[in-house]
Structure formats: C-alpha cells, structure tokens
Amino acid sequence: MDLFTYIKNGNLNGVKKLINSGANINLPDKNGMTPLMVAIDYKHKDITETLIRNKANLNFTDKYGQTALMLAAGRNFTFVVKLLIKAKADLNKVSKSRLTALGFATSNNNKESALLLKKAGAK
Fold first, then answer.
1. Most buried residue, 46, 47, 85, 120, by CB count within 10 Å?
2. Residue ranges of the domains in the chain?
3. What is the pLDDT of residues 103-123, one digit of tens each?
4. Which residue from 53, 57, 81 is spatially nearest to 69, judged by alpha carbons?
C-alpha cells in the first residue's frame, strides 16, 4: 500500500513503516494535497502528529493555495491547530481565496480555532 492509502485507512503503523523506509512525506497527491493535509482531512490525530514530528512541510499549499493550518482551522480540528501553531506553521499565509487560517476558522464559525489563532498572533 502507499502512504495515502495508509493515511486514509487510519493505519498509523503502516504510515510509520513507510516513513522509516524513506517515503517522501511531502509528495502531494493528484489533488495537490500532502500526506499531512490528507491526515487532517480525515481527522487522524496520531498520524497528523507523526507527520509533523517527522518534519512534514507545514506550509505547503494545495491547488487552492491552502495550507495544513487552513484545513485544520476550517474544520475546527483544534488539536491540530495547536500542534501546527507550536510547530511554527505560517499563521498568516493567504490562500487563493484570500483567506488566512484565521479567515477559514472565522468563516466556518469555528470559534475555538479562531481564538487559538488570534492568541498566537494570527491576523
């Protein structure tokens, strides 16, 4: 199986095995999403944490100009918003739709993520 399949299935051991064997954790899929973005999209906390710990590119943008932090904030995945803030993700990067992570949180009425981002200095 490939990395994206393991991630979608929530198979943390498979993800770790591929990372340990040298899989490129920053290679995007056909939609321009990295493994980190897919893990966030599927709300897999442990896999997301593992990818961040293994130096996944936090500020990679998909075909819409969205970053992992924007995805997490838009989905109110506050656990990951906290992780990405701590890991020094770019708080103020702007997507093609002209929204920052704070904009995604606010436009989706995700108050907890918005508050975390504001406290961290997001604009």
1. 47
2. 3-120
3. 999 999 999 999 999 999 998
4. 81
In our burial notation (b when 16+ CB lie closer than 10 A, e otherwise), range 80-102 reads bbebbbebebbbebebeeebbbb
Please name the amino acid found at residue 107. S
Q: At what angle do helices 78-86 and 111-120 cross, to 10 degrees?
A: 10
User: CA–CA separation, 63 vs 52, rounded Å?
Assistant: 21
Q: What is the mean pLDDT of residues 42-68?
A: 96
CB atoms under 10 Å from CB of 105, counted, come to: 29
Long-range (24+ apart) CB contacts under 8 A made by 24-29 are 25/51, 25/54, 25/55, 25/56, 26/56, 26/57, 26/60, 28/60, 28/62, 29/4
The class (CATH top level) of 3-120 is: mainly alpha
Number of H helices, E strands in the chain: 8, 0
